[in-house]
Amino acid sequence: xxxxNLPPCVRASVLLPFMLxxxxxAAGAKPLxxxxxxxxxxxxxxPARVLVELRITPNFxxxxxxxGSAVEAQRRAIVEAQADILSRLSGxxxxxxxxxxxxxxxxxxxxxDALARLEAAGDLVARVVLExxxxxxx
Length: 138
Prior knowledge:
Blueprint: H1 8-28, E1 34-35, H2 37-43, E2 48-54, H3 68-88, E3 94-99, E4 105-110, H4 112-119, E5 125-130
Parallel strand pairs: 1-5
Antiparallel strand pairs: 2-4, 2-5, 3-4
């Protein structure tokens, strides 16, 4: 007996739980940031220098791909996202190393409590990666 041959009430009772689960997942799902495993390893021995990629709306696009008016709007979105995440980190052990004007990124020195706060901010944080220096300090 094919799906089309089932009575409507049976089809609804079979499909409804799946549809509700998908809707609940989509509506209530909070994105999780991707955390570089090297960040956790570095935090085992003390603070870590990281780059935090932020989510902005609309999604980030290189300025060369944007019309003139959109450049300033994107820069405002970057500043607002940076201010928001720095506010959320309040009360944790972190230091701001650098803010960028044209890309949604922050360079931070963090401890484990700050990483936990960044992980809880998946609506704003896309990725946390260990900052790797090209040239070791001499």
